[in-house]
Amino acid sequence: MNNRTLTFREAFNEAIRLEMRRDPLVIMMGEDIAGGAATHLQEKGEEAWGGDLGLTKGLVQEFGRDRILDTPISESAFIGAAVGAASTGLRPIAELMFVDFFGVCMDQIYNQGAKLRYMFGGKAKVPVVIETLIGAGFRAAGQHSQCLYSVFTHMPGLKTVVPSTPYNAKGLMSAAVRDDDPVIYFVHKVLLDTSGPVPEDNYVIPLGQAEIAREGTDATVVAIGRMRLFAEQAAETLAGEGIDVEIVDPLSLSPLDEKTILESVKKTHRLVVVDEDTPRCSVANDIVTLAAQQAFDYLDAPPRTVMAPHTPVPFSPVLEDLYVPGPAQIADAVRAVMA
Amino acid sequence: MAEIEKEKLLWIYERMKLIREFEDRASKLFAQGEVPGFVHLYAGEEASGVGVAALLTDEDFITSTHRGHGHCIAKGVDVHAMMAELYGKATGACGGKGGSMHIADVDKGMLGANGIVGAGGPLACGAGLTAKVKGTDQVTICFFGDGASEQGTMHESMNLAAIWKLPVIFLCENNGYAQSTPAYYHCSAEDIADRATAYDIPGFAVDGTDVFAVYEAAEHAIARARRGEGPTLIEAKAFRYYGHFEGDNLSYFTEEERERNRQRDPISKFRERVLSRGLLTEEELNAIDERARQTIEDAAQAAKEAPYPAAEELFTDVYVSYP
Known about the structure:
The structure holds two protein chains of two kinds.
Chain A: E1 5-7, H1 8-22, E2 26-30, H2 40-43, H3 59-63, E3 68-70, H4 75-86, E4 91-98, H5 106-113, H6 116-119, E5 129-134, H7 149-153, E6 159-161, H8 166-178, E7 183-188, E8 195-197, E9 211-214, E10 219-223, H9 227-239, E11 245-249, E12 252-254, H10 258-268, E13 271-275, H11 283-294, E14 304-307, H12 317-323, H13 327-338
Parallel strand pairs in A: 2-3, 2-4, 4-5, 5-7, 6-7, 10-11, 10-13, 13-14
Antiparallel strand pairs in A: 1-8, 6-12, 9-11
Chain B: H1 6-31, H2 46-53, E1 61-63, H3 69-74, H4 79-87, H5 120-134, E2 140-145, H6 152-163, E3 168-174, E4 177-178, E5 181-182, H7 183-186, E6 203-207, H8 211-226, E7 232-237, H9 255-263, H10 266-276, H11 282-305
Parallel strand pairs in B: 1-2, 2-3, 3-7, 6-7
Antiparallel strand pairs in B: 4-5
Helix pairs in contact in B: 1-2, 1-11, 2-8, 4-11, 5-6
């Protein structure tokens, strides 16, 4: 089955399964990640939910409740426990159900997890993965829909990963689990049911290695996470107009593969960055700065960004659809830098 | 009174004296402008840190607080490395990159002093989880103060440790003040130990200036944790001689309070106890006094003379990539 197709959800799940088989020090904890702990299901070794959106389904049957831990709704306690366990010898994966919940546990992430190695002069390591759901599109309103990866990318000591396909979801999770620093792994909930080819072996996509999602010569579109899919649609439209777009998917935001981005910009001389996060102090604007500082002489037009507005995510489907950047806006931005 | 063998009594006295000497010296060095930054001193609370640490090995873990020097010394962190860390020197416990509020020595099971009040609770649960998953008999002591007892993290952590039966002892050092705010104002409970009832775990309030009382309570709690029966909350009621931080002139203390504290001094109390019972001799104690004084003197001198970190250390021990 070399051309096996999996959904993003299945690929994510498989990566954790393979890493847990490979290394007994890998454990996972989060709210309802098995589901039904201490109920009649536990005695039968079964689960109720396998996570709110089924990301961890089946793991408890294979690894048991000692390694797949349902937690109370105490994000500070269990995210911090994951950090503490990581600094004492385990390699935990903790699920922060929605990234919007970081407000109740951020201290444990950025003051503890991110800083211990540096503050202790290198005498500690914190190999923890925090995976979390991001993104609009589920009509989940203001407190369950943001991206927020720019906030974490801003923090020294954290690594940030935003997969976009089933293939890279699997390889990046394996890399994240094996990394000795805290890695925040952002899962766009709209991507969970997308499908693609995924090899069966346990492969690693190194953090800090971007992917050229489409080769082209006329303009570079850097697209993060779900935005890659919209960029690919826009590129199809633009191809019909004779515009040959190159799409760079950074995959990791920290480390950021600056080299691949700059090489593409130097080749095409034009840059559009597409990002579902809000604009102020964002990764998108950081990438524009990178190009301005290091490839200014190569640019034939001012770089553009296509981003969410600087607002909370609205509930009304009409407004939410306006909030999320789409293929039409991306195509317009490319046409503008081509003009 | 807990039965403690002579060798351990000598160890306890030496650790308490080292802490006192270290803190008195740190206070002077700060006042002289030798030591920069934020410094929070532990003098007056020696009996709780040492009374618990007397029951631990290097394999056991502790999490600490901003007032962490005493916990470090009790857990066996080298005082030379600690003093150099206060100076921000290359020979410091953290290479000068942590300072007083972040001294750590993971090899000694000391998981770091902590600048965030109440942050140690979740970390202690994690260390306890490591022991549980690996199937060892290691225990973790989570030191926290009366101020931290009002943080949500501590409540979350005690609940988590209780439901997972983690080998964690929550050791609340109630020195009576959260910065300048007294516990009788900030705390709804007469005894913080009573909150254990809410998590269905044992809770004991003990005299935190009596090392024997702390030892006895900790002995029960640690044995219970090593048996896999879960956490215990111990409240050690003590006081601090110095302000919240160096530079705090303790204007919120009354003269009566200061006098009452002096009467409760944990080191004097220990001396009286062991001498009156003939457990140790005056000569043995005096020899330790002199050794502790000399050790801290040497540590301060060495720290003063030690080199600062090299400039490139700014960029080590963290992933850095920025143009």
